Amino acid sequence: MHVDGFRFDEGTVLARNLAGQPDSYAHVIWDIELSETLEDTKLIAEAWDAGGDYEIGHFPGFRWAEWNGRFRDDVRGFVRGDSGLAGAVATRMLGSSDLYQWSRHAPVNSINFVTCHDGFTLNDLVSYNQKHNEANGEGNRDGNDDNLSWNCGAEGPTDDAAIDSLRERQIRNLTAIQMLSFGVPMITAGDEMRRTQQGNNNAYCQDNEISWIDWSLADTNEDMVEFFRRIIAFRLTHDCLRPCDWHQGAPNARGSAEVHWHGRRLDEPDWSADSRTIAYTLGGVGGQPDVHVMVNMHWEGADFALPTGREWRRALDTAIAGRDAVSPPGAEPAIDGDHYLVTSRSVVVLIGT
């Protein structure tokens, strides 16, 4: 039937014994894990359940991938501008080793997502501070109250061009971080065209315009659709963004480390509670360019020093509107000087040889 795999809703219910306690040796999970019939089937668990069992990084088996709820929450809060998350987001971007490496899982066990079928769409995540579920008939009591969202200055639809421009940049920021992160990115259908559920974060019961995909949005927001195409292509072009295993410390042919952490100054990463910046360089694989990432989620711009010994070109700057935020391959503009001014609330990626 051309089914690639299965995602198990509230998957930890399968990992409880007859007494309802978590069981690392649950028969159904290991039967699926070891089944020859399912050996080429993708297996994905939502590794938590309504009973409070939260098994991110602990879900039984080795083939099972997990929806990384920690990735979602840390990235949402960081892009919103919350403090104290720079170190956590840096860990998420490099595959969440704190969750998966200790248990001999690989980065691909992490399904990195910002939105899913439950909760806000990506557009609504940057357009609403609160849920608006009145249409569900439960007095707005249903659905999650803590969405780590920010409306960028107005609740819901707006005619303010500056607010809408910031919302688009925030969408690019969230997507850029997701596409730069080790693991498997998951995009919710319609997010690439700014689909909205009118602030409803529990729309499963709505079989109408609230939950349907309006395909005309692909034309209305064609620049955003093209941004998604380009940044996905960038991810697929650079193997250093898709490692099969954890870094072992071996430099590439140019002598570049697999990962080299910086901050606004070279070799000085800032993991302080007030930091809203991240910078690091990934060594290119197989002769591909090195990739230098600078993230600034502060409300003021920041000047970042650039690593020496390479000619840097700009592949991505989310402060640039529309599709041009991602430079076409081969047309990346060269960077003059040894610093780059990263605009407030933006992500910049340079490639260098």
From TrEMBL:
Lineage of the organism: Bacteria, Bacillati, Actinomycetota, Actinomycetes, Micrococcales
A Pfam family recorded for this sequence: ISOA1-3_C
Q: Where is the sequence biased in composition, kind Basic and acidic residues?
A: 133-144
Domain Isoamylase 1-3-like C-terminal, chain residue ranges per copy: 260-319
Region Disordered, annotated ranges: 133-153
Domain of life where this protein originates = Bacteria
Q: What is this protein called?
A: Putative glycogen debranching enzyme (Fragmenet)
Q: Which organism is it from?
A: Kineosphaera limosa NBRC 100340
User: Which InterPro entries does this one have?
Assistant: GH, Glyco_hydro_b, ISOA1-3-like_C
